[in-house]
Predict the 3D structure of the following.
Amino acid sequence: MPASGVTFGKKTLRDLKVERGTPVVLRVDFNVPLKDGEVTDDARIRAALPAIEHLREAGTRIVACSHLGRPKGADPATSLAPVSKRLGDLLGERVYQAPEVIGPEARRGAARLEPGEILVLENTRWESGETKNDPQLAEQLAELGEAFVLDAFGSAHRAHASTAGIAKHLPSYAGPLLEKEVTTLRGVIESPERPLVVVLGGAKVTDKVALIDRFLDISDALLIGGAMCFAFNKAKGIETGNSLVEDAGVLLAKGALEKAEDSGCDLLLPTDLVAGDDFSAHASVRKLDGVAVEEGWMGLDIGPQTAERYAQEIKQAGTVFWNGPMGAFELDPFAAGTRAVAEAVADAPGYTVIGGGDSGAAIAQFGLADRVDWLSTGGGASLELLEGKELPGVEALDDA
């Protein structure tokens, strides 16, 4: 398991010793999809349950907070009320919903809690000071508790008032999800079982150039898919037709190709493609024997030969890390490559880690999420941690 030998270095819920009835501010990641006022995917809510149950068993009064979406001020469409309802359904207990983030109603709601009860504050991004890490907002949030627990890994890479700011005012601890995320992802970098096979997809090389550079140094094989492969192809002088190619990524891809020649990492690119004449489920489809794409066509998936080759690499791995789909998996004609990789990861005998984001959505879409060892809840946070960046939310917590 990659997490072996990795030291977390911060205080966790195991270190939290409080009396029954102590109020605790718990920052969770309840940034979940909503439709018609209902939660459509409760995976992130379920991921927070271990921290919530721990605090309930300790008899604390829980004041939970989270953001949802990117509203500009108070917006009923981004209220956490549906999330509170879903959380209550999962717990089989009533969960109280505050009408505000801070203010008299939030304070009264927190003060009325009995041991083990939960109050969910409104969307933290309704407050303009949240994303600015406003010290006054952080202090007002801290006034609602006597300790702070951060369990929102998906927000830990943001220095916001409810993640890093509040930690300056209260004894601060990591929740079990945050601890597991950090140690697992650090383990991929620091102590993976070999071979380490990394699968990177998605649209832009510029989004993942630091990740590509890092894994060229430490992985045994790096498999590239998705639209980012066209930056590599263009760097090699291969026609890309109407495929999505970011000009800024071509030079970066050229640098990665040059680095790969001198590294111990085997950089693999698609050798065949599936192309369409439109980005649509109703597009005309061509299976290409090679990777040159004609004008009027765009590459929208890796081909079957590439999918099989990638699957064989994955099946031989001691550790697999996958982030980013192999193509437009949301369109049925172009889902096969991503499905093949997802199935290979699910079947892999080694330790398997999915880096959240679209690859997490893909493996869930194919019904394989329960067959991987770790499915990260943080897209951007996962990538920044793997790139070697410090996460402000984690750094702000008390040292162990």
Observations:
- The domain at 13-176 is CATH 3.40.50.1260 (Rossmann fold).
